Amino acid sequence: MTATVPFRGVDMHCHLDLFPDHQAEIRAAETASVFTLAVTTTPRAWPRNRELTAESPHVNAALGLHPQLVGDFAHELPLWRKSLPEARFVGEVGLDAGPRYYKSFDLQKKVFRTVLEDCAEIGDKILSVHSVRSAAVVLDLVESHLPAELGTVVLHWFTGTATEARRATSLGCYFSVNVAMTQTDKGRALVASLPLDRLLTETDGPFTKSIDNKPSRPADAVQVEAAIARIRGESAAQISRAITTNLNTLLRRSSP
Ligand code: MN
Predict the structure, then answer these.
(1) 38 alpha carbon to ligand 1 midpoint, in Å?
(2) What parts of the chain have a pLDDT lower than 50?
């Protein structure tokens, strides 16, 4: 399936089901041949996302339980666990210790730990992980509950420190970089420092904006490649090749 289909560009984290026309966005990503991970925010969204992407070689649905929704939707964790055997890709999951979500942080940790343990038990999962203001705790939990040989973590929109990024790298994590990360000094410093063989791209559409100021879509992932190339002083072709190689490595490594 996905691992063998040629693709032009990678969007490792996009909320296609939050666009007004979900099916049109799937078709557009398919037409553009962009490998797309269509993340979801609650397990109730999984069956529909799975069904709509079943015949799409480039678009893959991921089973999620977003940390910002854990405060209200933790009761859906049993549904998430029940669905996991059907899912190769998991996300959006993780932790958010920002002020709006801090009151659910203990509950988020419990949920994320269960997510990691379940993924480890089944094996071969690829996870798109949110880690706002919580990179150290996310990495502690990954280190304890999902060793690299049992699953692969892709840190989405990573905003941790350089030290945390090195620790994540040593734990086997990848990083999916979006356009917003290339627009701040801190983000650019991080993008410049990440190992080339762990870089992936994402849009996090509709939560970032493309250069024409519209919500980012999978086809906009190539704009991120260009921005990464400028920051790192490499050619867009070099970055594009590296990202293609990285995705193929990731998919192969996680194949049974
Ligand atoms: Mn997201």
Answers:
(1) 10
(2) 1-2, 256
